[in-house]
Amino acid sequence: MNRTAPRTVPLLPFHVTEHFPEVADLARPTTLLYPRAGAPSVHDSSMGGPLLWPADEPWLFCEAADHYRPLRQPVETVGPFGVALTPVLQLYARDVPDLPMPAGTDLLQVLWCPLLHPPQHAPLPVLRWQRTGDIVMGPLLEEPPMPWEYDEECVPRPCFVHPTRATEYPGRDLPLDLRDSVEQRSKQLEDVVGLSYWDAAVATQTKVGGYPGWTQEPDWPVCCCGRQMEHLLTIHSREPSFGNPWLPEEDRLGEGPMWRRPVSPEVESSIGPGTGMSLGDMGGVYVFVCPQCPSSYEHRYDCS
Ligand SMILES: [Zn+2]
Ligand SMILES: [Zn+2]
Fold it and tell me: Cis peptide leading into 119, omega within 30 of 0?
């Protein structure tokens, strides 16, 4: 059984570009990850799962002097000892063919310090691009260190991912001059069909590529070389559930049009509440890379 098999996004009652031709040129491919609770191994693509890591390579620790855990008593600031980074995402190139990989690598690992860090008051992600052939030649790390202090809301529970290719259109990145006309027709469409532009066109969930799943106004980082960076991936607290057309067919039950069917009770516990994280108030962390500077990455954070 393929434990990372793609899901099927339901067909909607209309094509986005049929009603909103002005966004056709803004379509972007994305790979939706659909994390579902489970027990992935180091050889699986996963969210919050164990990482493929050489036994002789030191784990990563954060020693930021000002990182903190909200409401920790008697003080919020944590220290002076380093805090082990926690696994957030592991993606094998074979599972996510659209993930841009630096030459010679075939594995992306995202870890972060599970405390909050000024000035964004967010976890601090670290990206590692690896060549699996080099790692599996030797012994693997069996028991990675656990952080001795962490913010529960920043630690995803172990999930398999189900990378699924889709097309999406801008939500908060919709150009200002298009917003009014889209909004107007979106309302009309919602009255008739029960789906708005925002429902049908915008995927706010954990994904690779596409548009960042902003819950606030966009804030694209600029690289030190002067270029606007590109969205690599979004790690989100939210996953589509009841009433969301992006909920995959495999996770639905019942009769009627597929995109309206409710969540299957069997899978509800593995979807909701998402990955067990609540970044801020169900916000996201957005990771960006520069196409010119292979080792350069940045992140943004927001909460709804
Ligand atoms: Zn830290
Ligand atoms: Zn750059």
Answer: yes
